[in-house]
Amino acid sequence: MESQSKFPRKFKDVSLEELRDKVAEFAKVRNWDQYHSPRNLLLALVGEVGELSEIFQWKGEVERGLPNWSSDDKKHLEEEISDVLLYLVQLADVCGLDLGQAALSKIVKNAQKYPLRD
């Protein structure tokens, strides 16, 4: 599937596997695994989604590419989106799910559920 974004990519692609391994190691060396039950990770994920939502709460509609945002605002958004992604990857890992394959399967399922109209 080719990206339809008109915004140039600045960074190399990172696999979900690489993220999973890095976040697992990060937690392991800090002995945080004991706190990372599926429930606790989900609640942390919800909290991070809330923080992400706060960034947009009073902005109204926002243009693609965020052309009117300051570099500080974009950096804050990048950090909160990253928190959401990392908790999601970690939650899938702790639940024994293949997040990448699940996402691809969901795209196929959605294509069947919402076929193209003429």
TrEMBL record:
Q: Which top-rank group of organisms is this from?
A: Eukaryota
- Which Pfam families does its entry note? MazG-like
Entries under InterPro entries matching the protein = DCTPP
Kind of enzyme, top EC level?
Answer: hydrolase
Catalyzes what?
dCTP + H2O = dCMP + diphosphate + H(+)
Q: List localization entries.
A: Cytoplasm, Cytosol
Provide the cofactor list for this protein.
Answer: Mg(2+)
What are the record keywords, sorted?
Answer: Cytoplasm, Hydrolase, Magnesium, Metal-binding
What Gene Ontology molecular function terms does this protein carry? dCTP diphosphatase activity; magnesium ion binding
Biological process, per Gene Ontology: dCTP catabolic process; DNA protection
UniProt main location, coarse: cytoplasm
Enzyme Commission designation? 3.6.1.12
GO cellular component terms?
cytosol
What is the documented function of this protein? Hydrolyzes deoxynucleoside triphosphates (dNTPs) to the corresponding nucleoside monophosphates. Has a strong preference for dCTP and its analogs including 5-iodo-dCTP and 5-methyl-dCTP for which it may even have a higher efficiency. May protect DNA or RNA against the incorporation of these genotoxic nucleotide analogs through their catabolism.
How does this protein assemble? Homotetramer.
Annotated protein name in UniProt: dCTP pyrophosphatase 1
Look up and give the organism this protein is from: Ambrosia artemisiifolia (Common ragweed)
Its ancestry begins with: Eukaryota, Viridiplantae, Streptophyta, Embryophyta, Tracheophyta
